[in-house]
Amino acid sequence: MEKRISVRTTINNKVYDFEIEPRLLVVDLIRYNAGLKGTHVACDTGNCGACTVIMNGLSVKSCQVLAPRAHGGEITTVEGLRSGEKLHPIQEAFWECDAVECGYCTPGMLMTTIAFLKDNPHPSEDEIRTAYSGNLCRCTGYLNIIKAVKRAAEKMSAS
Amino acid sequence: MENTEALRAGRYVGQSIKRKETYELFQGKTAYLSDIEVPGMAYAAISRSVYAHAKIKSVNLEKALKFPGVLAAFSGQDVKKLTKPMALFPFTQPRPYTSEYPRIRFFDHYCLAVDRVRHVGEAVAVVVATDRYVAADAVEEIEVEYEPLPVLTDVEEAMLDNAVRLYEDWANNIQYEFRLVEGPVDDLLRSSHLVIREKFVQHRYTGTPMETRGVIAHFEEGESLLTVWDSTQVPHSISNLVLDSLGRSDVKIRVICPAMGGGFGIKWAFYPEEVLIPLLSIQTNRPVAWWESRTEHMLASHHSREQVDYVEAGFDATGKITALKATVIVDMGVAYSSGGTSLSFVTSNYIPGPYKIENYSAVSYGVVTNKTPSGPLRANGKVESNFIMERVLDQAARELGIGRDEIRIRNFIQPHEFPYRSVTGSLYDSGDYPTCLRMALKAADYDRLLADQREARGNGRCRGIGIGFMMEPLSSLRPNAYNAGYETVMIRVDTVGKAWVFSGDINMGQAHKTTLSQIVADELGIKFEDVQVFEGDTALCTSASGSYASRYSTVTASAAILASRKIREKMLQIAAKALQCKPDELVAAGGVISDKENGARQVSVKAVANMAYYSINLLPEGMEPGLQAIHYFINPNTSFYPDEKGRTANFSTFPYAAHVAYVEVDERTGETKILKYLTVDDSGNMVNPMIIETQITGAIAHGLGGALLEELVYDEQGQLLSTNFMDYLIPSTTDMPEIEIHHMITPMPFTPGGFKGVGEIGSIGPPLVLASAVEDALSHLGIKIMRLPLKPEKIWREIQKAKGAVISKS
Question: Which residue of A has its CA nearest to B506?
């Protein structure tokens, strides 16, 4: 077993102090050390995007990052999306567009959307397709997801 | 929850209501298997064979056992002492059929390989540790000594009498054999105007649900209670199979399937880990968890589709099929007990599909090789059978100079002929195939596509139109099987008038909670929001067959309707007494029971429930208190046993669809671009059109993956080369064309709801319609597409070969 190190990180606006093995992955830090199981693992190789979270403002595949990199950083996971009584407009858009079946990839899709629409609030369909090619979904065939991203963009620019 | 009061105007069934199960999911609050934590849980890691075929000379666990944090380690020899061979699935006995065919052979194997491994990835030994990272480290300390044996990766070689035998006590490598002869097929082929003879090579691919398989087991010794959380499509079957395989008749078992991250048939099976993990919990007296890495999933969860088919089809001068003959050779991979044989059975029984074929002979084999076991995948056997038939018809149309649409219409079973007894024994329930195909061609603006294609040709661009028709047998039944072919729904209207629905089915993304709520709310006359659905827990839900073969619409929906009606009848009797009228004068809707005529007299469902449980003094004389009912609904329109000719009818319903694709193939690169894709589907009455369209789109994406990208590749040593999403490409956003969806409806006549099932049929279309389109695009080169996937490299090679042939001729 490797020597443990201290990592302080903020997840969904809450500060955590962890004593961890340096080889721990960010996704495991989130899931097991912070107990936030909404972030999923589906490929282990960074191809599928199910583990996508926002780390220091960027969308990051958290199965590809070692936990010490999260030290001093800020992470938002799917659990941190909703604030207050209503769902986040992105969550609403995915719901309204039926952009989900089994839901296993969905948290990664939602978090990618946060970062994507921040950079590109009025995306074209081609831009959406390119941006989401690293988020795999096996159920929906993507078309409703593409619609949902467009609708989320409309909702967010309207609000 | 969202208020669906606005939908009160009519019935909930038929409305595109948003999914109720995803509200928590969007917030990351839905627990999938690997999200479950049981106090004191330990983790297993499995050592898997690196050889495709080898003797196990020794397994040394010493170093692993000494590894800090390791609680236990076991080899195949250990589990052989502690368990029985794995129980068979789906059959409860080794000779389920009394008829001569199908013939099936089985092999005793344990949840870890004992003295021989037969595919790369086979489970050989296991460690249990306090931490997942430690388990992953410790499993590397297990030392296994192998003696490699000759490897079989080619199914036709494996069939030969002199091939290496994978199972020493078998006479050859044929696990499964089925034969069917109907009519003087050989004579008719000899006298036919045209005979099409083709060999098809259908490649190996798989479902790759985003959530891999996993099992958590918790044995509580005091009560002899074994709780197993399992990401499976067949929790009730698993409960029985685990106990039989453990040989523990003293143990009570509860199988819970948490939220499932996709299944697609891959989780319809009985896998070694489903015995191994419960065994580890019993042995270590701790909860034990295990779930696959993606690489483990690719190696150890079943594959599908792979087969070689030889087909001869006779036609008269008008394009009518005179006789059809098929040999289907399925590459089973290793002969696990788990139901891979259905691929052979279904393929060979449904090649005639939607066409009126009265003379048919088929022989099908399931042959073992040193590959991962084969099992079902979305539209199992139906992707393959429809592919064969549609490809044959395209060849015949070209040879005879008949339109590809026309040859299909001439051979279709006609609308007035339903219910239609097919040549292989099934009774097709209902349909109008010619209308469906014509609708598709009209929607695609076929004439305009033809004109565009001509124009493109003139500009040196290879565009092609694909036309495909598919019919899908659904909702199966089997004799002497864990998947016997019924479904149960138990409903309790509680003391305040809310309905609690317990279904034996299991959701893997189809939105059962939403659609069952729609059905039950309509039948009971209560609000959608007042229905609460439970599935996937053998302690709560009565025994049932599980989720596969798009059977929810046929059996689960029917069980829910009929159980609801039993309760509604009782509620109306109670209300009639209270309102001093007759039950048949009343109607229930929106939580209120009132006069059919004018609604003048009313009583709420809540008040009726209060009488049923509390003011039982007000119940009609002799009535039992309570509002609860259960219904077991057996697959209609089927027979358990073959008829006098050996034909079986084991599917209930036969939805169908027509797909049209328009593609452009880049002659320089071999790349296929889809310009247009549309489908006309008839899946009977619709519960929720929005959810149905999402399912159709997703199924088409699955089919596109198989047609264009996905391929499980083995080298000559039996090493799987596609073990992650870098090497095994599934469609992404950039691969998915727009899909145009149209519907037509002929209700299923043998069920109360008239639904047919829709989750899989979309997967059938892309392989056959894209093959048709690419062939059409390259028709000037005479290229025939009899194998998939349509990878650029493969198409490019075909183009080069064809061009070379042209040059050498001239």
Answer: A102
B135 min Cα distance to partner chain A (Å) = 11
| Residue showing tokens 């948003």 | B18
For domain A5-79, the CATH class is alpha beta
- Chain B environment of A137 (Cβ under 8 Å): 210
Among positive and negative, which fits the CA dihedral A100, A106, A110, A115? Answer: negative
| Residue B76 burial (10 A CB sphere; 0-12, 13-18, 19+) | buried
Q: Which of B513, B547, B726, B733 to mutate to test the interface with A (most CBs of A within 10 A)?
A: B733
Task: Please answer yes or no on whether B691 and A98 come within 8 Å at the CB atom.
Answer: yes
Express each pLDDT in B95-116 by its tens digit. 888 788 889 998 899 999 999 9
Rounded Cα gap, residues B639 and B205, in angstroms:
32
B730–A136 C-beta distance less than 8 A: yes
Give the model confidence (pLDDT) of B131-140 as tens digits. 999 999 999 9
CB B173, CB B163: distance < 8 Å: yes
Cβ contacts (< 8 Å) between B511 and chain A: which residues? 101
Q: Global pTM? A: 0.97
Sketch the domain layout of chain A as residue ranges: 5-79, 89-158
CA neighbours closer than 13 Å in the CB half-sphere of residue A132: 36
| Across B6-15, B113-122, B228-237, B502-511, least confident range | B6-15
Q: If we measure between CA atoms, which residue out of B146, B144, B139 comes closest to residue B65?
A: B139
CATH of domain A89-158: 1.10.150.120
Contact by Cβ (8 Å): B323, B311:
no
pLDDT at B2 over 50: no
